[in-house]
Amino acid sequence: MAEGRFAGRKAIVTGAARGIGLAVAQRLVSEGASVLLSDVAADVGEAAAALGQPHLQSDLTAPGAVEALFALADRELGPLDVLVNSAGIIGRAAKLMELAEADFDRVMDINLKVGLLATQAAARRMTPRRSGAIVNLVSVAAVMAGGDQIPYAVSKAAVKQLTAMTALSLAPYGIRVNGVGPGPVETPMAAAVTGAGPEGLKRVLSRIPLGRMARPEEIAAIVAFLASDDASYLTGQTLFADGGRMALGYFAEPIAEPA
C-alpha cells in the first residue's frame, strides 16, 4: 500500500475526467488514497485506468444517479473518508434579460444540487464513524461580481454558503466541510471566463498580482490539505486561491509586466 497522508483512505472525486477534478484525483492517489472518479465525460474511464482506480461515467443530475455513485463506492472502496465535489460547468454567458430559465437551472443543478445530494450521501456514510472530510470547489466568482456568467456566479456563491451550513450541521459528528475558491485556472473551462485570445488573457492577468493563472495541480494541493488531517481544526472555511486578485484594491493600478 502506498504511503502518505491518505494511505488506506477512500475518496470520491466528482468532475474527475479533466482539469481540477483530475488533478485532485491524481494528488490523492499519489498520497495513498483509493479514489472513485466520476464524470459525465467518457474520458473519465481513461483517466481512472491510468491511475488504476474505479470510475463511473454518469450524469449526476439524473434521478438516483448520486446515490448510485455512492453505492458503487460502497462496493468498490468500502467506508468513505473523503468527498471532493468538483463537478461543475460555467454555463452559457448571457445578459440578464436574455438569460434562459433552462440555462440557469442546468448550472444550478450541476454546480449546487449535485453537491448537496453528494454531501448528504457522504454524511450518511460518515456519521456512524464520526469522521470524514468534504471539500467543495467554489470560485472567486462567489464573492466578486462581473461579466455575464450570472448562473455560474450565483451557483458558486450558494456553494460557498452550503459549505458553511453543512459544516455546522456535520461538526458534531467529526465531519469537516471546507471549500476552495480558485481564481482563473489553466483548464479547458477557463476560456469561457477569461475571454478568447491573447488580449482577453492579458486583461485577466493584469488584475492578478502574481501575474499568471493557477495550475490545476496547485488547486489540487490545497484540496488535499483540506481533506487531510493537517487541516483537522478547519471547517466551514473557503480558502481563496486567486494569485492575490481579491487583495487588489479598487484604486490599484493594473499589474505591470515584470521589467
Ranges with pLDDT <50 over ≥5 residues? none
What does the radius of gyration come to? Answer: 18 Å
Shape: globular
**Which CATH architecture is right?**
3-Layer(aba) Sandwich
What structural category do the secondary elements indicate?
Answer: alpha/beta
Terminus-to-terminus distance:
49 Å
Overall number of domains: 1
Per DSSP, what share of the residues sits in E-state strands of 2 or more residues? 5-15%
Helix content: 40-55%
Count of DSSP H/I helices: 8
Helix-strand string = EHEHEHEHEHEHHHE
What is the spatial order of strands in the main beta sheet? 3-2-1-4-5-6-7
Quote the CATH topology: Rossmann fold
Look at the structure and give the CATH class.
Alpha Beta
Average pLDDT reading: 94
At the fourth level of CATH, the homologous superfamily is NAD(P)-binding Rossmann-like Domain
Question: Can you characterise this structure?
Answer:
This protein has 8 helices and 7 strands, in the order E-H-E-H-E-H-E-H-E-H-E-H-H-H-E. The chain is α/β, with parallel strands linked by helices and 259 residues long. The chain has one domain (10-185, 216-242): NAD(P)-binding Rossmann-like Domain (Rossmann fold), CATH 3.40.50.720. A 7-stranded parallel β-sheet has the order 3-2-1-4-5-6-7, sandwiched between helices. Helix 1 (19-30) crosses helix 8 (216-227). The model has no long low-confidence stretch (mean pLDDT 94).
